[in-house]
Amino acid sequence: MNGTPAAQMYIKDKSVPVVVLVSSQHGGLGIIRSLGREGIPIYGVHQSKWEPAAHSRFLQRVFVWDFSSAAADNSVKFLLELAQTIGKRPVLIPTSDVTAGFVAGNAGRLADQYLLATPSAEVVHQFSCKKRTHDLCRKLGVPTAVTALVQSKDEALDFARTWNFPIIVKGPDGAFRLRKNGTGRVAIVRGEEELLNIFDLNSNGRDPGLILQEYIAGGDATVWMFNGYFNEESECLFGATGRKLRQFPAHRGSTSLGICEKNEAVEAQTARLMEAVRYRGPLDMGYRFDARGGQYKLLDVNPRIGSTFRLFAAENGLDVSRVLYLHLTQQTIPRSRVREGRKWIVENNDLVSSLRGMREGELTPCGWLRSLRGVQERAWLAWDDLAPLAMLPLLLRRKQFPNGRT
């Protein structure tokens, strides 16, 4: 989807540059394209110059820095020097859990040189801990999956026997070991032996701590999303809901095929939770519908622009990244409407998940073709920006599968 005339009319001042801290996946590329198509100067900070997004034609310049391995002080120094190089105070947009946490934690040191739209470090920490998120939701009466932080095998087995297999296992601070040579962020565990094996892989002679959640039955289409942007008063300036139609990895990962659909219950629950924590900035949330009680239960909160944000592009081209830019540059944000039925796809991920669905008998070739009707935008393929697609095989060679939700 190219920039629309309407978008060009409401983004009147395009002089403020943007620095995107790009993850290896497609979310950062979506931001680069969405803002770059409007003529806004975009600078990308990538872990490697071989990342597909680093080759987008909409980038003014590419910088290389690894926030996951560099010391925080060095990363702050790098960004301050980068702002001086650009020569004008830019907007700074993180696209991963690591960079979002870094920007929030160092906002006071970066604010003189960058325009920032980030929640407080306390709020980011609140939502990065699944157990703290669960406890907050219980306090506020927001439905959520039963969650526990377990630090012994006995605690893990007690939880599984209380809530029954399958159960969901997550790392307390991100990825954890699923097998001898593999990691992940989410696992569906179906028996005691598998659960104990994961515990042993992550113990290393000490109590590892794992997050266990009840498993809420239902297909991919029971998972709902909210994407939006909140101002300093926690007022939602832009928000939309939709469903996952397929995920990657299958049944437990990020959206590979999604559809926009209005859900007032999800919108209301999100607004109540964000008001309670005085949230500001971009937001990506996931819920699952629990048919047992007819509730939409919160699964996770990502205090940043989510990788699926372009699913929620409005009819006038407005999306979360453009609202962020307009807000930080003190421009008027127009009214917008997201068209129900709009679909968005991550081509490579969805093909893998679809093939698995066919092997498991959940999807037929004809059903797969029907599911693609209505796809209006692709994560990788863009006719006005083909280079990232050409570079995609290099990413796949280095990293076969993304670990969980990004």
Description of the structure:
There is one protein chain. This protein is α/β, with parallel strands linked by helices. The protein folds into three domains: 5-127, 3-Layer(aba) Sandwich (Rossmann fold), CATH 3.40.50; 146-214, 2-Layer Sandwich (Dna Ligase, domain 1), CATH 3.30.1490; 220-398, D-amino Acid Aminotransferase, Chain A, domain 1, CATH 3.30.470.20. 35% of the residues lie in helices and 24% in strands. The protein contains 14 helices and 18 strands. The chain has a seven-stranded mixed beta sheet. The chain has a five-stranded parallel beta sheet with strand order 3-2-1-4-5. α4 (97-105) runs antiparallel to α6 (121-128) and α8 (153-163) packs antiparallel against α9 (192-203). The protein starts with a helix and ends in an 8-residue tail after the last helix. The model is unreliable at 399-406 (pLDDT under 50).
